[in-house]
Amino acid sequence: MALAKYDNQIAQALVDFSTSGAFPEEEHISAAYVNSELLPIALGALNTAKAELETEIRQISKESAPDVDDWIRNAKAIHDDIEKSRKLASSIVRQAEADEERLEGLQQQENYVEFLSKEVHYNTQLLSSLKAIQGANDLLRKLEVQAAEHNLVDALHTLADAFTTIAKIPLEKTARALRLLDQRAFDLQTHIREQLLSVWYALVHIREENGLVTMTIHDKLPDEPTTLDDTVIGFKSFKSLDTVAKKLWDTLDSTVFKRRMDIRAGSLQDIVVDKNTLSLGTGTTDRTIKTLFTDLEAVIRFLNEKLPPEIADALSRKMMPVLCSRILEDWLDTAVPSSLDDMVDYQKALAQVGDFASKLDEIQWPGADSLHDWVANAPKTWLSKRRETALDWTRNQLSLGIGEPQYAERTETRMVARDDGHHIATTGNTINDEWDAGWDDDEPEPPAAPEPNGHGNGHVKNRSSFEEQRRVSEVTTPSPIELTDNEDDAADAWGWGDEDIAEEEALDPIAALAAAQTSAPQSSAPALPRRITPETREMTLSEKYWTSSLPEPVYKTVVQIYNDGAQLTKPESEHIPVAPAAPGLFALPTLILAMYRAISPYYYTSYPGGNMYLYNDAIWLSEKLKDFVAAWNTREDLSPRAYGMVRLDSEIKVLESFGKRAYTNELNAQRTIINDLLNGTQNIFQQPTDPLHSSISSVLTHIRTLAVLFSTILPYSASSSATGSLVNAVASKIITDVFELSDIGVDEAERIATVISQIESLDDLFLPRDNPNRRSSNPVNSLSQSIRDNEKEEEVPLTPQFAPLWLKMKFLSEVLQSNLKDVKYLWFESDLSLYFSVGEVVELIGLSFEMNPQVRAVVREIQGNRDPRGVGVV
């Protein structure tokens, strides 16, 4: 009953919630429970709301009735407009469909009109083409008639018109009618060309019969309307003028020019020109250039006068290059002298060539430029011929090989110390400053050359008489010259007293000999410090040796070239056409010498001892050139220009280096062979005894063979130095291998001593040679008696002089065979300290003896006295 008073509110809240979604704000309303009894009340409230709504709607409808009427009227108007538009659109569609039908009919009419227009155009074009074809056909018929009548000039014009007309026919090129016309026109063209050539060959006729060649040129034939000029016009129209000219030249060349210009033929036929006929073979002619130019001028004038200008010009372009080349190479090249002897004939040839070229210019025959150039370049041409001849001759001389060896002698005068002069006079050694290049090396050089081809004993027969002469030293000495203190500098320039010899001094044999005597004295005499002797003397040293036949032709060629160059520099030689070639001629010897250096090694190396011959030849040639240069500068018959033209100093140095390099290469190769025979890089004493002795025997045999070979080529000093270099290589190998051993027992020491004893047998290679003139060549009378006494005594080998390690190897053998007391004696009393250092001796003692107090005491004594001989510590 408490909620009954809120039923109407709850019913209204339900209606408000249903219609507008409003939620009651009062809590008792919103939390109230709605039961079935409340529904009728709610429906009543709903009906009341409905009635109010309808009333409101009616009121609104009454208020908006006028507007609705207006909307209805407007809607009807719009509907009417739509209907009118639809009807209008239908009418437009119907009209459009009617227009399409009308346009289709109109298009059909236009297509028909276009078809009719094309038919009219086609008929018009067809008519034009038929008329053009008819015109071309008429021209071709006319052309056939003209060709049949041999009216070739008119036929050519008609042919040109016919091709023009055919080209203008408005048809495709593939049209049958057009192809037929083209084929017919080309056939007629070929026919006319054949007729034209036939007429040409009839007008320019060349006939060969029974060795007689006849060329006849007609301007016009009696039964032929076509003239020679007409044929040229025809050839120009066919663009075959050059082809015709080429064929004419080929025919003339084979029948006329080659037969007349073949300088190698047995006889040459003459050429005769008579009016319009040229004949070859009526007689013979000489081989002079003057006659050749006379005949060629006659032929060229004949062709120039009888042929039309166009064909003559085309012919000259084909003919003159070949003709001038043949003249220059076959005729004028042989007229160029290779020396100044035939210069008169060369001047005549130049005048004849110039006259011939001038006559060609007079008749306006082109192509004589090369002849003018030949005349203008006469000095260059002669120089080229001289250069080619000289080089070819030199090359041919070199290709002959070494040939028969020839002996030569070298003489030199120089100031030497009295002691050295006495040594040279006593031993008979002949020494010069060129033979010792590369001989002072203590150690073998690394391999630098292949193994030589052979080790023969010589190649010259009947040498025995010369062998005695070539080892003779002829020494002439004036009164002694006293050296003052102020002259010490001059003596120092010889390198005396220097412990370290410079490379240049090492090449000087006298300086090398002095150094060898200082560094390697004989074991029997103590060595004293070297001092400059206050006395010198002038000595003339001479040695004889063998050269091949290669350098002499080279030298003669060089001398002859320089003499010719000197002649061309004289004022009276200005009229000689090749005088301007003098500077180039003076440069030619350089090429000759360069060729000698480039080619000659091939011929030397194919011969036993060839490198030694090369060395001798190069030194001989350089000395001859030095003498020539010295004599050249003192000549009185030379012009001032000629004195400075001989520049051979650099060439002489290169030549000397070239020879020394050959010598060094030979020794390097032989040292490499020796090293290989001595077990190479392996220690030779690590081999068993039999292979060891076999290796030593092979080396000794090889060195003896080379010694004999060198002695048959080189002077005594040079051959001994070369052999000494090889022996020194063996000694170096032995010494090095001994020091590389870990220890040396008694048996091993005996084995090493045996090997060294075998090697010491080479001493006999260095015995002084007998000198039959020794007594007469004694430089100082006071020494005569001592020389005679020395001759009676046994000669001492000069091995230490040429092999610096020789005595060191011998002392090594003594040390290995000695007891400790003997070693001490050798160091303090003998010359062991001159060849071994303290460290080396101590090392040898360590290898040969066990270290005990006694051995250590000796070692301390040796180390405490490093220079027992007082000559400086080694």
Automatic annotation (TrEMBL):
<dbReference type="InterPro" id="IPR046362">
    <property type="entry name" value="Zw10/DSL1_C_sf"/>
</dbReference>
<dbReference type="GO" id="GO:0005737">
    <property type="term" value="C:cytoplasm"/>
</dbReference>
<dbReference type="GO" id="GO:1990423">
    <property type="term" value="C:RZZ complex"/>
</dbReference>
<dbReference type="InterPro" id="IPR055148">
    <property type="entry name" value="ZW10_C_2"/>
</dbReference>
<dbReference type="GO" id="GO:0007094">
    <property type="term" value="P:mitotic spindle assembly checkpoint signaling"/>
</dbReference>
<dbReference type="GO" id="GO:0006888">
    <property type="term" value="P:endoplasmic reticulum to Golgi vesicle-mediated transport"/>
</dbReference>
<feature type="region of interest" description="Disordered">
    <location>
        <begin position="770"/>
        <end position="795"/>
    </location>
</feature>
<feature type="compositionally biased region" description="Acidic residues">
    <location>
        <begin position="433"/>
        <end position="445"/>
    </location>
</feature>
<feature type="region of interest" description="Disordered">
    <location>
        <begin position="424"/>
        <end position="487"/>
    </location>
</feature>
<feature type="domain" description="ZW10 C-terminal helical">
    <location>
        <begin position="695"/>
        <end position="850"/>
    </location>
</feature>
<feature type="compositionally biased region" description="Low complexity">
    <location>
        <begin position="770"/>
        <end position="782"/>
    </location>
</feature>
<feature type="compositionally biased region" description="Basic and acidic residues">
    <location>
        <begin position="464"/>
        <end position="473"/>
    </location>
</feature>
<dbReference type="Pfam" id="PF22766">
    <property type="entry name" value="ZW10_C2"/>
</dbReference>
<protein>
    <recommendedName>
        <fullName>ZW10 C-terminal helical domain-containing protein</fullName>
    </recommendedName>
</protein>
